[in-house]
Every structure is written in structure tokens, then in C-alpha cells.
């Protein structure tokens, strides 16, 4: 079988997540102070109450004896090797099985058209298997029962095809068809399309993207959690993370450490912070910052870093300027690769420097800037 299976055309299901939380606040205003433009949001403080309870410093004898006996039981149990039971997936309502199977098949068919790596084909195979299993549990009372039974053989053929391609394809952790945890908002939207709606909580450094009933949670613009309730997220949870790349000659933000070594060479110095899983790579006077073995920032002081930041291009009219509250990718599209990028998760901020000019992002959106070099293509609305 040399021809790739065609795309499923029966739709994406009918999940319509209706959460309408809004973290943008009301009464926003733009303020100018000493060359800085920034957005001011109201702050709400809630008084907490501290309770203190005093107790006797002495315990009754029978309580002490009971605690000693309990400690002995715990030590006996923990001294034995135990394996926690595997977590079971939530049961699928039989009434929803057909819709979820179609959603899964749609994702599998679309990734099939562009899949190249073993990781991609293995994910596609898992999705076809899921679609088969879901179609098989469609109840006889469902009006789509006959359609479901007729699709099982087709899905099984697609499953066999994907399994064969997974064995034949090269191993690679790069994908243009799948996203994973630790990647950025723009990558999710490029692959998934525009969400049905979003919720931003800037004070918590949090954003939720809703795709039907499925949700993707971002922290400072980076994926930290997802819930694929509608079986429509094109995500992989493989132990081999999806990496960001531009080409074979440059690395970029979110690239893996191994990719930086391959392109940039051996650093002149490495400083490791084991407690926070952060590393700083020195290439002469230039620095590369990593967290969990991914690039989070850099400082190209020596102008010797082979770094390029290429945003996901948006269809339609090219963007020629950005403004307050513009997404991070719009800045990259207009301004190009920064000379310095610094991420500070503790304050939910990221700083982009272009020469002496600086752009401050909060939760992945422009919150302030200082155009010292007059080289920022910004227009305040």
C-alpha cells in the first residue's frame, strides 16, 4: 500500500466549551513614564486570617504507644518494593463514542498527509487504534451504528499502514504536525488552528486555550498541561519531546540543549544549577540560558551565537507594526531576532532586547517597551 489514506471528512465533533472567564481586567489604561509605555491593571488584595491553636506539650501514654506501633507498620510496608497501579483512562460514554472516534480519525488523517518521522507515525498509529476501539463500542441503538461498523475495517487498514511506516521512518524529535508540552502558544495555534475561545489570567501567569471541550493550559506562554476531552488535540506525550528548529545551521528559542551543542559547538564554560534544573552555556562573552534542557533565552554579547527566531507566518496582510498587548510572535515577525532574550518565570515576564531598546512581555503579550534606539516598529492605539 503506497498511497497515504485520505483525510477524514466527517467533522470535528460538537464540543463547545463555554467557559467565559476573562483575566484581562477592566479599566486598563496606557501610562507613559520616563520613556516607558506600559499597561496598568487594578489589583485586588484579600485579607487572610491566621488561626493559632495551643495544645499541651505532653501526650497521653496510650497515644505515644499507638504512634510507635503505627510507625512500625509503616516501616514494614515501605521496606518492601511496591509498584503503584497504572492509572486507568476515564471511561468514554458510549453515546459519545462515534463523535470522539471521528475526531480522532480526522487528526490521524491530517497528520498522515505530512508525517515523516517515527514519532509522528507512531502517534498516528495510536490514534487510528483509538478510533477503531471507539467505533467498536458505538451502541446498537445509536443512529450511526451501521456507519461505525462500516468504518472499522477502513480504520484498521489505516492503522496497519501507519504501523508499517513507523518501522520504516527515521527517528526524529522534530515535527511540524505535532506539538508537546514545553512548546509555545504560537506552535499550538499553528498546528491546531484558532481556539474557540481563550481565557487569560495575567496575575496568575496563566492562559487557557479552548478547542471544543479540550483545553490547553499555558504558563507564561508555554504549554504546561492539556486535557484532550474531545480527542481533537494533535499532541504527543512521548518521552522524546518535540523540538523547535529553523534549519540545520541555526538554533532557536525552545531548542534542545543537544541541538545547540551540535550547531554552536562545545561551550567555553557551563554553569549548572541542579536545584532549578537550569544551565548557562558560555560561548566567549555570549550566553545561552536553558531550563529543563531547553533554550529559554540568550545574550548575544559577542555576536557569535548562531541563533534565529522565525515566527509562524500569519496568512493575509503582512504585519508591519505591533502595539501594547500584541502577542509575542507579532513582535518577532516585525522586529526579527532579538539581541537578547531573558525569561523570568517568577515574575511572569520575558524581556526582548533590540540593541538598547527593550520590550517587556507578560504572559506572552507586550506589556511595556522602551524605544531608546528608536528602532522599534511600535504604534500605540
Give short descriptive properties of this protein.
single chain, alpha+beta, Beta-lactamase Inhibitory Protein, Chain:B, domain 1, four-stranded antiparallel β-sheet, 7 helices, 21% strand
Produce a short descriptive summary.
This protein has 381 residues and is α+β, with helices and mostly antiparallel strands. It has seven helices and 14 strands. It has four domains: 94-168; 176-242, Beta-lactamase Inhibitory Protein, Chain:B, domain 1; 249-308; 311-381, Beta-lactamase Inhibitory Protein, Chain:B, domain 1 (2-Layer Sandwich), CATH 3.30.1450.
Characterization of this structure:
By secondary structure, the chain is of the alpha+beta class. It is built from seven helices and 14 strands. It has helices spanning 61-78, 97-112, 118-136, 145-168, 185-192, 257-264, 328-335; strands at 29-33, 36-40, 197-201, 206-211, 214-219, 222-227, 269-273, 278-283, 286-291, 294-299, 340-344, 349-354, 357-362, 365-370. The relative contact order is 0.12. It has four domains: 94-168; 176-242, Beta-lactamase Inhibitory Protein, Chain:B, domain 1 (2-Layer Sandwich), CATH 3.30.1450; 249-308; 311-381, Beta-lactamase Inhibitory Protein, Chain:B, domain 1. The chain starts with 28 loop residues before the first strand and ends in an 11-residue tail after the last strand. Helix 2 runs antiparallel to helix 3 (118-136) and helix 3 packs antiparallel against helix 4 (145-168). The strands form two sheets. A ten-stranded antiparallel beta sheet has the order 1-2-14-13-12-11-10-9-8-7, with helices on one face. A four-stranded antiparallel beta sheet has the order 3-4-5-6, with no helix packed on it.
Amino acid at each position: 500500500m503506497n498511497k497515504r489514506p485520505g483525510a477524514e471528512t466527517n467533522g470535528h465533533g460538537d464540543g463547545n466549551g463555554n467557559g467565559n472567564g476573562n483575566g484581562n481586567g477592566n479599566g486598563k489604561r496606557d501610562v507613559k513614564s520616563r520613556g516607558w509605555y506600559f499597561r496598568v491593571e487594578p489589583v485586588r488584595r484579600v485579607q487572610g486570617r491566621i488561626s493559632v491553636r495551643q495544645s499541651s506539650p505532653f501526650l497521653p501514654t496510650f497515644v505515644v504507644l499507638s504512634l510507635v506501633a503505627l510507625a512500625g507498620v509503616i516501616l514494614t510496608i515501605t521496606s518492601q518494593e511496591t509498584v503503584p497501579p497504572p492509572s486507568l483512562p476515564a471511561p468514554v460514554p458510549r453515546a459519545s463514542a462515534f463523535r470522539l472516534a471521528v475526531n480522532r480519525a480526522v487528526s490521524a488523517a491530517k497528520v498522515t498527509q505530512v508525517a515523516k518521522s517515527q514519532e509522528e507515525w507512531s502517534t498516528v498509529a495510536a490514534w487510528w487504534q483509538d478510533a477503531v476501539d471507539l467505533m467498536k463500542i458505538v451502541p446498537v441503538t445509536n443512529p450511526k451504528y451501521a456507519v461505525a461498523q462500516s468504518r472499522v475495517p477502513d480504520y484498521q487498514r489505516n492503522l496497519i499502514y501507519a504501523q508499517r511506516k513507523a518501522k520504516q521512518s527515521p527517528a526524529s524529535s522534530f515535527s511540524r504536525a505535532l506539538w508537546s508540552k514545553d512548546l509555545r502558544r504560537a506552535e499550538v495555534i499553528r498546528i491546531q488552528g484558532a481556539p474557540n475561545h481563550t481565557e487569560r489570567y495575567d496575575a496568575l501567569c496563566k492562559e487557557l486555550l479552548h478547542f471544543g471541550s479540550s483545553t490547553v493550559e499555558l504558563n507564561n506562554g508555554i504549554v504546561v498541561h492539556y486535557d484532550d476531552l474531545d480527542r481533537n488535540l494533535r499532541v504527543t506525550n512521548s518521552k522524546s519531546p518535540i523540538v523547535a528548529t529553523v534549519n540545520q545551521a541555526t538554533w532557536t528559542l525552545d531548542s534542545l540543549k543537544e541541538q545547540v551543542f551540535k550547531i554552536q559547538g562545545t561551550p567555553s564554560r557551563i554553569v549548572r544549577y541542579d536545584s532549578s534544573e537550569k544551565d548557562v552555556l558560555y560561548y566567549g562573552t555570549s550566553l545561552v540560558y536553558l531550563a529543563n534542557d531547553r533554550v529559554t533565552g540568550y545574550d548575544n554579547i559577542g555576536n557569535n551565537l548562531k541563533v534565529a527566531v522565525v515566527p509562524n507566518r500569519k496568512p493575509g496582510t503582512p504585519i508591519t507594526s505591533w502595539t501594547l498587548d500584541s502577542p509575542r510572535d507579532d513582535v518577532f515577525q516585525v522586529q526579527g531576532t532579538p539581541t537578547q532574550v531573558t525569561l523570568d518565570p517568577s515574575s511572569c515576564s520575558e524581556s526582548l532586547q533590540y540593541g538598547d531598546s527593550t520590550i517587556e512581555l507578560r504572559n506572552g503579550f507586550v506589556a511595556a517597551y522602551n524605544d531608546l534606539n528608536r528602532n522599534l516598529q511600535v504604534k500605540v492605539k
